[in-house]
Amino acid sequence: MKVLLTGGTGFLGAWTTRRLLQAGCTVRIVDRSTDRTLLDALAGPAAAAVECLALDIADTRAVAARAEGCDRIIHLAALLTPACRDDPIRGATVNLIGTLAVFEAARRCGIPQLAYVSSAGVFGPESGEVPNPTTQYGAFKLACEASARAYWLDRGIASVGLRPLVVYGPGRTVGGTAGVTLACRHAVAGQPYTVPFTGETDLVYVDDVAAALVAAVLRPVRGAHVFNLLGEVAHVDRVIAAIRALCPGAMLDAAGLPVPIAPRLARHDLHPVLGALPRTSLADGLARTVAFYRTGVLA
């Protein structure tokens, strides 16, 4: 199977590519950046076989051209919360118009199903059951979910959207919730770091998200599905204590407001659509992240 992966050189993209290669897939990456550093670090020698092309995700014709010959699409290209807040027009162009470009590419190329990352940002701070975004990023993601339903009803293109909250693990450097990963990296380096949010939130290890995305294109799907993808709810103070246990003397603290999303999301049953999926505990995920920054090798 040949998979077009948008945003494939980024944090989640590199992990998803690794999973696709392990499953025997051929991967074509399109991204605004062609920096393969993280991809090479995670996928090793197998990454050499991955095609990596520069692309503006909002260029509908270019996306369709790159989708030619592919069997499935995984769509990850997006601007995160801070960038959408600072430039909502650019945020909508990339996150919403870019998603429409991907669905149009699937329609034009006869690709029957795709997977994409939505976000728990579709929820506000009051409820993890009823979408009510309080950020531009969350608003764009909720619109993408609605468009995915319309593409199923109008065009018969099946899809699976996933809503993680805080995704952490080796390689994450950007976004408003990157602080957990950055705390691990700074702790290993012996540098002080302040996690820029406080309170409780749901944390999911990046490889669990990648595994769900790959299952969403390898398994036959009908309909337009959207699932909350849960990890483990923890207070930031607990996270810091766990990192300190792994890195004695780590100079870590936290400041700022809580993440503006309800930490306890409605639990969805993914098994009927995606089958059995891995679920990494917070303790194991933090240990793997710290080990990576110590050795440069995945544990």
List its salient traits:
single chain, about 300 residues, alpha/beta, Rossmann fold, seven-stranded parallel sheet, three-stranded mixed sheet, 11 helices, globular
Q: What does this 3D model show about the protein?
A:
With 299 residues, the chain is of the alpha/beta class. The protein has a single domain, classed as Rossmann fold. It is built from eleven helices and twelve strands. The strands form three sheets. The chain has a seven-stranded parallel sheet, with helices on both faces. Helix 1 runs parallel beside helix 2. The two termini are 28 Å apart.
What's the quick description here?
By secondary structure, this protein is of the alpha/beta class.
Order of helices and strands: EHEHEHEHHEHEEHEEHEEHEHH
Q: What would CATH call the class? A: Alpha Beta
Tell me about the largest β-sheet. 7 strands, parallel
- SS element count, helices: 11
Tally of extended strands?
A: 12
User: Which strand order do you get reading across the main beta sheet?
Assistant: 3-2-1-4-5-6-10
Radius of gyration: 18 Å
Number of domains: 1
Mean pLDDT: 97
| Global structural class | alpha/beta
**Ends distance:** 28 Å
Helix content: 40-55%
